[in-house]
Structure formats: C-alpha cells, structure tokens
Specification:
The protein is α+β, with helices and mostly antiparallel strands and 185 residues long. Helices cover 51% and strands 18% of the residues. Strand 3 and strand 4 form a beta hairpin.
Amino acid sequence: MDCKRALTDADGDFDKAADLVRERTGAKMSGRVGSRTASEGLVHAYLHAPQPGLPPKVGVLLELNCETDFVAKRDDFRALANDIALHIAAARPTVVREEDVDPETVAKERDFATKQARDEGKPEHIVEKIVDGRLRSFFSEQALLSQPFIKDDKRTVAQVIAEFQRTSGEKIEVGRFARYRVGEE
C-alpha cells in the first residue's frame, strides 16, 4: 500500500515514487542491496549484423540477474539487458569484473607497466602512480563493469547498472556472458 500511495502522490512517476517510499519508510537501498541475492533474471541473446539484410556476424549471450521475476519481466530490464549485450558486442570485454582477470595476467601487466615507466626515465616515486593508472586502463579494456558504457561514455557499465538498481529497488548483476564473432575463437 505504501508503494501505491507513493505512486499516486508522485503522479505516476516511478522514480519520484521510489524516493517517496524510501523517505517514508526510512529504507536505505545501499545497505540492503549488498546482502540480497539476485537469483532471478534472464538470458538475453543479441545478434549484430554489419548492415541491414546481411547475416549477423557477432552474437552475445548475457545472463543478467535480479531478485524477482517481476523485475525480470519488465521491459526496462530487458532493454538494460539488450544495451549491455550490445556493449559487449562492441567493446569486447573478456571478463565481468576486475577480480575475474587472471592474477597471473595482472602480475605480468604490472611488471610490463613498471618496466615501461622506468625505461621512459620516470622518477621512481612516480612509477607506482603511473603503473596504477596503466592498470586502471588495462582493467577498463578487459572488465565489462569497468568499461565506459558505449551509449554514454561518461558512465561505466557498473554505474548504468547501479542507476537501474536504484530505480528498480532490486539488486541487479551480470552473471556471465559469452561473445561470438564469425571467424574468431
């Protein structure tokens, strides 16, 4: 009933209604989201053709999770899944999160960045900052959630998901994905 009253008070605006419910009930989404389980959701398939009329050359399968099937059935959740799959097709991430990158690969990348900074003659006290910056750049190429969102490069994919999470009131997370391109392994 609180939700219905808030929606009426907000003249049908879901965002305003969500804010009203939070204000009236004292609910804080940031604390609640971390302890919740996103065990519902969908698997979304996206196919991309180079031009209209030509067969698709890139395909993405994406598992996008949420807490309830109610949210999974919503058009805006499906649109989010499509946008993320489109992003995966274009940006070619290899993992979902930074922590999913193989630690051995990260160590090699760190060593390479350190050697490169020293070879450029950078002072030793600045080398670590340069290495950290280059690792951030490496992660933004590899990890989906760290990448600038293809439709709005001022935000990362993680920020786009967090925004949807705030409006839906549910925990939303990317479970996994697979990207296929004709001729690539």
